[in-house]
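Recap from last week: sequence in, structure out.
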Amino acid sequence: MSKKDRPASKAPKVDIGIPKDNRQAIADGLSRLLADEYTLYLKTHNYHWNVTGPMFNTLHLMFETQYTEAALAVDLVAERIRALGFPAPGSYSQYAELAAVKEDRSVPDAMSMVRNLVADHETVTRTARSLFPLADEVSDEPTADLLTQRMQLHEKTAWMLRSLLE
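Predicted structure tokens:
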């Protein structure tokens, strides 16, 4: 059958050396990571808009750097889910169900924002770390590399934010 005669909805089978059940489990974990990353992005952007006080300029710029990085990260995580052969979640309701990071509907004071973000970066780190053993078990190096990069960034960001609280 030629390519043009093949039904448009019939995608080729994903055959990357990882069984489908394992790919599904990894994609499910990455979906939780994506939800955490996106929720953290939204919260950080909200704090960027609404921070006030003596540290306004410092925090406003710091939060901008952080949400800009997060915007790039969500794309990397979603694309890894797609490479594993599964759809990436993309709605607020899905993120609300999947995320361990919770949105903030309030406008806390500046240092409470910092404290909240420390906790959230640590939460995202734990979400990524929880998936690492499965990725390692099935030799999914691309996912393991992505998780390592995400953990490194979130641990460093939590440390930097914590330093503001001392």
